[in-house]
Design goal:
The structure holds two protein chains of two kinds.
Chain A: E1 2-3, E2 8-13, E3 16-21, H1 23-29, E4 32-36, E5 43-44, E6 49-55, E7 59-63, E8 68-73, H2 75-79, H3 83-86, E9 95-99, H4 111-118
Chain B: H1 10-15, E1 19-23, E2 26-31, H2 36-45, E3 47-51, E4 56-61, H3 65-72, E5 88-94, E6 100-108, E7 113-117, H4 122-132, E8 137-141, E9 144-150, H5 154-159, E10 173-178, E11 181-186, E12 195-201, H6 202-213, E13 218-220, H7 223-232, H8 274-283, E14 287-294, E15 305-307, E16 317-325, E17 330-338, E18 347-352, E19 355-362
Helix pairs in contact in B: 2-7
Classes of the chains: A alpha+beta, B alpha+beta.
Chain lengths: 119, 373
């Protein structure tokens, strides 16, 4: 698993990458009450605003970590946004992307580097 | 952030694991480890303890209560003279344009008036009163904390410290010993629930708060849930839903201006902006504050522009408070719309992230009030 400095986690699953946000992020955001997921089939570029999440406090954008095609989104999360708080690296995943350039993964942090980042 | 002020309960907040944020110049708890959603629900179901010591407590003293009341009525369009002893009323300072300078609570405490104002406005309010009130003294109370105990079990909890708390009705005030300390208690709050606000000497505040928190049904509640609770209760937040550019009638606050101060009343007018406010009470205002329920799931917050039709060019109003209502279980908001386009049940459109999304104009409050009248 890899991590972005924006507190996303990226988990390879066959030729796809599953994307969500870390427990550190959900703790900082507080209770999440709304998640707007991208359309399945959408093509995104790295750093495109791809997901909107709203906590009780504020709205935040989640950026696409990679170029690629959105192949699946977590409909259960849209139905129950609290999943992102309850199980951020499991049932609280956001979307699965088919990367067009898998080497973009190389620039991201490994777990030790991410843990160092969040102190 | 070292210049932020601290309330007398600051160390307790840190011990409780609060997340602290700057608010109106104070370092305040926005939430505790329980989190906003659970804190909100706990207050609606049991009892929540809030630190509201940042708010301004001010004593107005004249030759007697009537002298102080008469003086204060020059700045506040409320029947203060007719307020019974040991009773409290909601009110506001108005300006010459009929706008609201701050909203407040005022209490008849026998030989003086206790005014409680918003933290962000308190310096201006004190200056305003000091400059314009004649024949009275204006004394900021700087040595007391202010706690709010809110929720359906608040009565049981406070009565465990002093049985007389249970005998108070909504908007009664009393001086009650709690924990051996003389406290100024009112049966009021900002959540839509039954409850109390308790002014306690700063040196005794933490011990009283800890005693209240030791009750199994009481949890500490931060400013985050305070905001979602008051929004569901349809209560205005100064600087957002009301400000110097909103009149009492626009804000739906005519009820706070009693008959004695209205046209034809025994002490009609005589406050700043009366020439604007009194005709509006009689004839209505061009716009009004309404409740709004987004038809989708996305919260719409302060500043979202409102349109009559999905493709209109010009907005007709905007949201002044909005977010997620944990008890409602969905997004809620308040905002201003032209009175002619503000009928309950009407659909309007809010612009969110470039999309126009529908909202339904809804009655306020969103959750029923549970006051003990």
């Amino acid at each position: 698993m890899k991590f972005t400095e924006e507190h996303e986690w990226l988990r390879p699953e066959d030729d796809l990458i599953v994307v969500g946000i870390t427990e550190h992020a959900t703790t900082q955001l507080g209770d999440i009450v709304f998640v707007e997921l991208p359309e399945v089939g959408a093509t995104v570029l790295k750093d495109d605003e791809t997901v909107v999440i709203e906590s009780v406090k504020a709205a935040s954008d989640i950026l696409a970590p990679l170029d690629g095609e959105i192949v699946e989104v977590n409909e259960a999360l849209a139905e129950n946004p609290a999943l992102a708080n309850d199980d951020p690296v499991g049932d609280g995943w956001f979307f699965k992307i088919k990367p067009s350039d898998p080497s973009q993964m190389d620039s991201y942090l490994d777990e030790a580097a991410y843990q160092a980042l969040i102190g | 952030m070292s210049d932020l002020l601290q309330t007398p309960l600051h160390d307790m907040h840190l011990t409780l694991g609060a997340k602290m944020v700057p608010f109106a110049g104070y370092n305040m708890p926005v939430q505790y480890p329980m989190g906003v959603m659970k804190e909100h629900a706990h207050t609606r179901e049991k009892a929540g303890l809030f630190d509201v010591s940042h708010m301004g407590q001010v004593i107005i003293r004249g030759a007697d209560y009537a002298a102080a009341a008469t003086a204060l009525e020059r700045l506040i369009p409320v029947d203060i003279l007719g307020l019974g002893e040991n009773r409290q009323r909601y009110g506001f300072f108005t300006n010459d344009a009929g706008g609201i300078m701050d909203d407040l609570m005022l209490a008849n405490r026998g030989d003086h008036i206790l005014v409680v104002v918003n933290a962000a406005c308190k310096a201006a309010d004190i200056a305003h009163m000091t400059a314009h009130l004649q024949g009275v003294t204006v004394t900021p109370v700087t040595d007391r904390a202010l706690l709010a105990l809110q929720g359906p079990l608040a009565e049981t909890v406070l009565a465990s410290l002093n049985l007389a708390a249970a005998d108070m009705r909504f908007m009664d005030v009393a001086t009650l010993p709690l924990n051996g300390v003389s406290c100024w208690v009112s049966r009021s709050g900002y959540t839509g629930e039954d409850g109390y606000e308790i002014s306690v000497p700063a040196a005794d505040a933490t011990e009283l708060a800890e005693q209240l928190l030791s009750h199994a049904d009481v949890a500490p509640i931060g400013l985050g849930a305070r905001d979602s609770l008051r929004l569901e209760a349809g209560l205005c937040l100064y600087g957002h839903d009301i400000d110097t550019g909103t009149t009492p009638t626009e804000a739906g606050l005519n009820w706070a201006i009693q008959k004695a101060r209205r046209t034809g009343g025994t002490r009609a007018g005589g406050f700043p902006g009366a020439d604007i406010i009194l005709p509006e009470i009689a004839g209505g205002a061009a716009r009004k504050r309404v409740g709004l329920i987004p038809q989708g799931r996305a919260p719409m917050r302060e500043g979202v522009l409102l349109f009559a039709q999905v493709d209109d060019d010009s907005p007709i109003g905007q949201i002044t408070s909005g977010g997620f209502g944990p008890t409602v279980g969905g997004p809620i908001a308040m905002g201003y719309l032209p009175t002619a386009q503000a009928a309950t049940g009407t659909t309007v459109y809010g612009e969110l992230r470039g999309k126009r999304l529908p909202l339904t104009i809804s009655p306020l409050p969103f959750t029923p009030a549970n006051f003990k009248r």
